[in-house]
Request: fold
Amino acid sequence: MLYDPYYHHRRSIRLKGYDYSSEGYYFVTMCSLNRKNLFSYLPVGAGLAPALQQELSNPSLLANKSRPNHINSVSGSNSSSLILTRIGEILDHQWKEIPANYKNVTLDEYVIMPNHFHGIIVIGTVPNELCSEDEKSSRNRTSSSGRAPARGAPTRNEKPISNDSITLGSILGSFKSLCVNNNLNYIKEQKLNEKGKIWQRDYFDHIIRNKRELDRIRIYIKTNPYKWLKDTKNRE
Reply:
């Protein structure tokens, strides 16, 4: 079962006995405090951008498109009319910084919704069963040449944390803390009468096992703004 904010907003679902420092793709969701619309918003009268409408008419296009290291369905590809709030901008910045802070950790699809965040995070080398045909061909060519496979992670950080000392939980815990700290600093600097807490406790995760599942979750993330628009409970 994928994320549903009405069922998973107070639960942390972990696979018992699983090593969350293992290499692989992880689908994660983090909710805003009390499910308030803190991260992004939809302007009155706004709808889906034409580009997303066209893609939704043929969902297979979404699964087959090549993926850059950082994709944000809200602000990065003009695929929806959701606009990031100040807090949403903090989330966007800190999420993109994760590969700079952790060795061999990269990002895939993600979206910042009004009251929750969906993202795919990759730890270590991508397994062959999760690679596209183009990625497999590139990997085979690299292997034949004797060169080490290239990584897409930024190298701005002089001392990225080794994979030997990280887990999915430590990455997300740090991400959430940095977002809160950034928000608190802004509140203090601007002398605002606001509370600094922005997150619901814990997070929801799902281990992605194969390419078909990866494509399905990518589509789920990409079309989340569309589902939000269709849900009358989200309209103010």
